[in-house]
Each structure stands twice: as structure tokens, then as C-alpha cells.
Design brief:
This protein is α/β, with parallel strands linked by helices. The chain is built from 6 helices and 15 strands. About 20% of the residues lie in helices and about 35% in strands. Helix 5 (about 180-190) packs parallel to helix 6.
Length: about 280
């Protein structure tokens, strides 16, 4: 059940180029599933930053007197995230969650490949743990522009059956992008399912490769979310439904996790003419 709570900061630590905040989240942490996210009010009660920011849930835990807690990863990219990255122990934040549709988990042990780009690997930790509890093989591929932009290498080494690392500049791992090595990883792992989170161009290519190899894929999309609860309609993208029709759906409510072969990646940031309800389609919503 979605809740809005006042959360206390328990810790703020640096991980490469990122910050990881540990927050009290009783009620939210207990119901969070892999792929869920939270939104946080920025700047305090008197701030002019009226829009919340969305963050994938990185880890959840139960910590004695604090009840449920959760971790989020932050990449400083503007005024809001810069303000959040300065938070210290005992500071209070207003958070809402858990939000969105989570990854679907297999009912039996299968071979899974997890792909993360930059701090898009943050939600892969709770996912990897859940998959291992179900007896799944978990291979992980993570990549970033440089070594400092990778997230959680040591922790993922402990969780994964095999970890493949790529960097654009070759500072560590294989020089190149995660999608350059994905074909080989899928074949080596005998993958049944691919889960991915990261930049949209990466997700598009992960979905294409997975579909070509006839492997089921799910992608957690990175769309800008202004409200996080489906009201503002700023995070819509074209997705093909089970009936074959394209609809403009909300990343924050119907997503952020979608089947990779159902997202019309080339048409993102547009309203396809054949989408239901499109201005020139003549269709009905």
C-alpha cells in the first residue's frame, strides 16, 4: 500500500560518483518489491522546488527500533539532487512509496541476466537477492562511461553467479557498452529472462538483442516523472498491449517496468499516429 511518511536520514555515504542515502521507511520498506520506487519532496517546506524526484529502491532492511529502512542511490544532476546529497543523519525527508509496477519474478529457478547502466544498477541488488531466493542463476552485466560511474561492483560480485563489467573508456573491465557483450553473456548463461535498468538507448538495445535471441525481457524505464502517481501525464510513452494496440501509458503507474518487446522505443517522445487516442488517429481512448 502506498504511504506518505516523514523519513529520517540514517546515513549518507559516497559510492564512486554517487551518494547512497539510508532512510527510515516503516510500512514502505516492508511492502517494497524489486523495481518499485519512491518520490521525495525537494528543498524543504518553503522550497520553490514544487516537483518531487523519483528514486529507485536500492535496498530494503529491518533495523530494530527504526522498523523498515530503505536505501536510494543519487546521482547529482541539478539543484534538487544537490540539495538531497547534502542531507545528514537525523535530517527529515517527506517520501511517498512504494510506487510503480515491480519486476515480475519467475515461479521457479531459471537463468536470469541483469543489466544495469550507471546507477541504473541500483535496483538490481534487491532483484538479484529475490531471484537467488527462488533458486535462479543470476548473471549481471553493468557498465558506465568511466570506473567512477559504476555502481556497486563489490556487492554485485557477491550476489552474481558471474559479473561482467564494461566502461566506455576502458578504465576497468571490457572497453565498450553493456550491449556490446550482451549477446555473449546471454548465450553463455543460457538465459531465460533479462532484466534491465539504465538509459533509454541502452534499454532499447537490450530489448532488441533479447528479442532477437528469443529471450523474455523486462526494462525499468528512465522517464522524467513530475508527480509519480499518474496525474500529470508527463512520463507517458507508447507501449503495445496484449491486444496488439498501442497506448500512451504512464511510466509511474503502468511502469516503470515494461516488457522490452512491447515498448515502441523508436517512438518515445512522440505520439504515434496509430496509438489509441492519438490526435490524428480517430481512435478512442
Amino acid at each position: 500500500m502506498v504511504q506518505q511518511i516523514k523519513s529520517e536520514v540514517l546515513d549518507n555515504r559516497r559510492v564512486g560518483d554517487y551518494h547512497v542515502l539510508s532512510l527510515t521507511a516503516p510500512g514502505i520498506a516492508e511492502s517494497a518489491q524489486p523495481g518499485h520506487f519512491v518520490t521525495i519532496a525537494m528543498g524543504g517546506e518553503e522550497s520553490s522546488m514544487v516537483l518531487r524526484r523519483a528514486f529507485a529502491i536500492h535496498q530494503v532492511a529491518s533495523r530494530g527500533v527504526y522498523g523498515g529502512t530503505l536505501d536510494i542511490a543519487i546521482s547529482v544532476a541539478g539543484t534538487g539532487t544537490e540539495w538531497l546529497a547534502r542531507k545528514r543523519r537525523h535530517d527529515v525527508l517527506n517520501i511517498v512509496g512504494p510506487l510503480g509496477q515491480p519486476f515480475s519474478l519467475p515461479k521457479q529457478g531459471v537463468s536470469c541476466v541483469l543489466v544495469g547502466g550507471g546507477y541504473g544498477s541500483a535496483p538490481m541488488f534487491i532483484l538479484a537477492q529475490s531471484l537467488r531466493e527462488r533458486g535462479c542463476r543470476v548473471d549481471v552485466v553493468i557498465g558506465a562511461s568511466t570506473e567512477d560511474r559504476l555502481f556497486g561492483v563489490l556487492e554485485l560480485k557477491r550476489l552474481a553467479s558471474a559479473l561482467t563489467i564494461t566502461t566506455d573508456d576502458g578504465s576497468t573491465g571490457v572497453r565498450g557498452k553493456v550491449t556490446d557483450v550482451l549477446n555473449d553473456v546471454l548465450q553463455r548463461a543460457g538465459a531465460d529472462v533479462v532484466y534491465a535498468c539504465g538509459p533509454m538507448p541502452m534499454l532499447s538495445e537490450v530489448a532488441r538483442i533479447s528479442t532477437k535471441q528469443r529471450v523474455y525481457s523486462e526494462c525499468a524505464v528512465e522517464e522524467a516523472m513530475a508527480c509519480g502517481i499518474g496525474v500529470c501525464m508527463t512520463c507517458v510513452l507508447p507501449v503495445i498491449g496484449s491486444d496488439g494496440a498501442t497506448r500512451m501509458v504512464r511510466s509511474c503507474v503502468e511502469g516503470p517496468v515494461f516488457r522490452g518487446d512491447r515498448v515502441r522505443w523508436r517512438d518515445i517522445n512522440t505520439i504515434p499516429a496509430d496509438a489509441i487516442g492519438a490526435p490524428d488517429s480517430g481512435g478512442e481512448s
